[in-house]
Amino acid sequence: MNLVFELLVGLAAGGHVSTWGMYKDSIHEGFTVPRYLRSTFVGLFWAPVAARVVGIDATTFGGIVILFGLTYALERATTEFWKTFIRDEDQSKYFIPMQFHVFGHVPRNRVTRLVVGLGYVSLAVGLLQIVRMLQPAPGEQGPLWQLLLVASIGGWYSAGGGAFKDAPIEGFEWFKFFRSPVVATTYGVMISFFTDSYVLIALCGIGYTVATLETYKTFFFPSKPRGKFAGKPILFPDMLQRRQKFVPFYVAIWIGIVFSFTLAFLRLGDEPPAIAGRLGGPVLAVDLAASPVLTAAAETQAPGALIELWSAGTPAFGIFVPDERPEGEREPGGERLPPVYTVQGGARLAANPLYDYVFLNLEGAYDAGAISRIADGLRGGRAATRPTLLVRIPPISADGEDAARARVAEALDNGADGVVLPHVRSPEEARAAVSFFEAANADVWTRDNPDGRVIAMLMIEDAGALAAVEEIANTPGYSVLACGIGSLTRALGDREAGEAGNQEVLRHAERVGLPDMITANADDVARRIAEGFLGLLMSGPEADEHIRVGREAAGR
Q1: 3-52 pLDDT, tens per residue?
Q2: Which residue of 350, 464, 484, 520 has the lowest C-beta tally within 10 Å?
Q3: Shortest CA distance to 398 belongs to which of 409, 386, 389, 407?
Q4: How many CB atoms lie under 10 A from the CB of residue 554?
């Protein structure tokens, strides 16, 4: 389905360019189908390529907005490079040469033009590299002036190139020079609500700028030959009428653009993220989450339906909170860097309606700030409900009971809806774990307290704990009993023994009337639901698809 939407966006972007180009030029050089469809085919090529490289979800309105602007920019860059530096064509029909020229003189040597063209490309790549260097680190927000500079940079590049090419022939106009940066800045700021990528903000800004200014020049002054045909006679007067047939198509594209922008803004926080990974969060997410209006709304926002689902015996689906650090990034010596979790990441998770809960795994590297950031992002959305935030802390055995007790209280204070205690090794540790929630005055959801709002989850992952599973399960005052099947399998040294232990934990969870959680994927989620697991936890880039399979199996 994504490919269909990508191709539709490519058709719209390419068809938009084809139509204004034809409308402007056909009265001077006639109409041919190949010439008209050239930009359309380029748009159809770039849209799916860009969507897959960047990770744009073209089934969302935010994704459509980004993909259209990006495709437009790529089409214009590709076509204009070909016309300016590669194509050989008689330039005498133009008032301003379309090939690269110096004060109207076009170098005859194609190699010379190509070398200059590569210089232009190098300059563009250099500017984009500067934009990337300005990109704030994960979890941080750049100043407003920086966003405005990035949003305008494509406009400045276009204005500079246009002044170099056109001003020596038709004169310099201040309004014309500053027009592109102003329009690009406006569009770039709007795009920043749908992605935190400075590169995408810059490219989409210039894409929409070209679309807007060419519409203005072409259709607001249809009888005034401009630019390359300024002062040239109309050689094909029949096209004055024939070209009108394409106007409804052009208007329909603009209606689609305005409609997509409108719906994208109206559904901020209510639809899945436009872009997978760290490119998907809005630049202004921190400001929005901190605004008085949205903060007040967040205070009344329900923490998701996880407890309600489990109370009704309905399977719930969640995802491991993804590490936002770029893949492969390490210390100079090769050491692994700690995970990165940001407000923007939390906002993206909140925007995905597939998630009943999110699972923040801090077992190996506890980070109280990460809990706050993810919680702030989850609460900063505009949806009526948000995913429940479960936080796994290090086990009691790692740093002792005092540290574990303090972490439970801190996690809840920082916004967690529930805390997961891994590697509970004995009934004594189970009782200690429950006491941590009591010390934090947490209103724990249990079989004896069905109105509780905090989730306390115990995990059995060791051979000794499995032997005591009945007594651990009988401990009062907790919400969820689960088996860490990977750790238990390693502890028992056998996959079949690990699965048998997993089923034993499930049996005792069902006996005491509590849900059990298990990691799953598209291949086994239906089976796990049939077995009785009520918490299905997914991970990786295909997690959404795994959840869709699970929801279908659960009748949701």
Answers
A1: 999 999 999 999 999 999 999 888 888 899 999 999 999 999 999 999 98
A2: 464
A3: 407
A4: 18
Task: Read off the DSSP letter of residue 109.
Answer: -
The dihedral of CA 89, 95, 101, 105: what is its sign? Answer: positive
Q: Which amino acid is at 534?
A: L
DSSP string, 42-104: HHHHHHHHHHHHHTB-TTSHHHHHHHHHHHHHHHHHHHHHIIIII-----TT-SS-SS--BTT
Structural element, H or E, at residue 418: strand 418-421
Residue 196: what are its φ and ψ, rounded to 5°?
-100, 5
Q: Give per-residue pLDDT as tens, 58-98.
A: 888 999 999 999 999 999 999 988 888 877 666 555 544 56
Q: How far apart are alpha carbons 218 and 193 in whole angstroms? A: 30
Q: Are 487 and 461 in contact (CB under 8 A)?
A: yes
- Please answer whether residues 142 and 136 qualify as being in contact, where contact means their C-beta atoms are separated by less than 8 angstroms: yes
Give the chain's end-to-end CA distance (angstroms, integer): 20
206: closest CA among 251, 165, 157, 253?
157
Kindly report the pTM of this predicted structure.
Answer: 0.56
The one-character DSSP state at 231 is T
Strand partners, 301: none
The per-residue pLDDT for range 316-369, each reduced to its tens digit, is: 999 999 998 887 787 888 788 889 999 888 988 988 889 999 999 999 999 999
Residue reference for tokens 């849900």: 515
% residues pLDDT > 90 (the chain): 60
- The tokens 């590697």 sit on which residue? 423
Give the H or E element holding residue 186. Answer: helix 174-191
Could you give the CA distance from residue 82 to residue 536 in angstroms, rounded to a whole number? 52
For the chain, domains (ranges, CATH) are 2-266 (no CATH), 306-326+335-553 (3.20.20.60)
For residue 460, what is the DSSP state? E
**Residues comprising the chain, all counted:** 556
- Alpha-carbon distance values, 523 to 316, 413, 503, 546, 550 (Å): 17, 37, 18, 8, 10
* Tokens (6 digits) for 318: 């969640």
Return all residues near 172 (Cβ < 8 A) that are at least 6 apart: 163
Question: What tokens appear for 190 in the block?
Answer: 């709007």
Instruction: Answer for the pair 192, 252: CB distance below 8 angstroms, yes or no.
Output: no
Cα 200 from Cα 151, distance rounded (Å)? 9
- Taking a C-beta distance cutoff of 8 angstroms, is the pair 547, 354 a contact? yes
Residues 512 and 479: beta-carbon distance below 8 Å: no
